Amino acid sequence: MHLDRFQQEAATTDQRPGTTEEALVIPLLGLVGETGTLLTQFKKFLRDGPAHQLFTEQVAEELGDVIWYVANLATKFGLSLDQIAASNLDKVRARWLTTSDRSGPTLFDDHFPVDDHFPVAEQLPRRFEACFTLQTVRDKPGVLVTRDGVAVGDPLTDNAYVDDGYRFHDIFHFAHATVLGWSPVTRRNLRCKRKSDPVTDEVEDGGRAIVTEEAIAAFMYDYARHHGFFADVQTIDYDRLKTIQGLTATLEVRVRSAQDWERAILEGYRTWRQLREHNGGVVTCDLLNRRLDYRAA
Questions:
Q1: What are the extents of the domains in the chain?
Q2: Regarding the domain with residue range 3-96, which homologous superfamily does it belong to in the CATH classification?
Q3: CB 14 within 8 A of CB 75
């Protein structure tokens, strides 16, 4: 049976139709109640094991009641159960499937206008090394990032009252470039902004996009410091990833999934921890294989 058909049939058995407060509260309470009953059945299963012989049948019944209340609420709010289910699948696929698992864009293809059709000098280098070297800046520990002996941006300190390692945060931008194929900060620092197209240069590589990426780095750093800088973390809170996607919804990186963002962030912090532990080092950014490799200097 199709979900919309089930929704229509369920509506014919609704004893409190309409959208009054009572009509809405009853299915909401019913949904909570049936969920509680489902938990009770599972508790009996844990307690009694094989002795709880009707467990499967009772779970099926309770799940049926849960679906009824969900369908009833969808009807009262003017929603389609088919569309709700389809939207949910889209969301979880974007959260848990990598780009290569889906039929969507790969790192560099026609679906994701990164820079393949721009002059080589305006392309993100497909493979490059960045050297992070300790340097004292205004009597504070700082870091100078170089590529082929040329400075990449200005020397950075933590810009904080305490030593928290933020001076290595350019690695997060390199991780965005490497895993997502997107980093306006890296384009600025490596001098590969797409100036041959004034619109792309302004919108995708300009000041607003740069500020957005810096905001994402700071936003995630605050989260990371409360989670051991992801040393023992394999997943990132989905609401955080959704916020990032919201911040970049008008930029080319919008095609990247929550899973792609998670991979970029965790890859960046894995390398950041190595840089901080060894007080610098050399990082190879391999965009074609979407990975960062660290070695001590």
A1: 3-96, 120-295
A2: MazG-like (1.10.287.1080)
A3: yes
Note if the pTM is more than 0.70: yes
Q: Using only the alpha carbons of the chain, give its radius of gyration.
A: 25
- Amino acid present at 212: T
Q: DSSP characters for 164-230?
A: -SGGGTHHHHHHIIIIIS--HHHHHHTT---TTSHHHHHHTSSHHHHHHHHHHHHHHHHHHHTTGGG
Q: How many other CB atoms are there within 10 angstroms of residue 237's CB atom?
A: 12
- Structure tokens, 196: 């041959």
What share of the chain has pLDDT > 90, as a percent?
A: 72
Backbone angles phi, psi at 246, to 5 degrees: -65, -40
Which DSSP string do the residues of 61-114 spell out, in sequence order? HHHHHHHHHHHHHHHHTT--HHHHHHHHHHHHHHHHS-GGGSSS--SSBTTB-S
| Residue 49 DSSP symbol | G
For tokens 């109640």, what's the residue?
Answer: 33
The answer to whether 224 touches 269, Cβ cutoff 8 Å, is yes
DSSP state at residue 232: T
Angle between helices 258-277 and 81-96 (to 10 degrees): 20
Cβ-contact 197, 187 below 8 angstroms: no
Instruction: Using alpha carbons, select from 220, 193, 221 the residue that is nearest to residue 207.
Output: 193
Phi, psi of 283 (to 5 degrees): -120, 125
Q: What does the pLDDT look like over 83-139, one tens digit per residue?
A: 999 988 888 887 776 555 544 445 545 444 478 889 999 999 999 999 999 988 888
Rounded-to-integer distance, Cα 198 and Cα 184, Å: 15
Q: Which residues does 10 contact at the CB level (< 8 Å), separation at least 6?
A: 68, 71, 72, 75
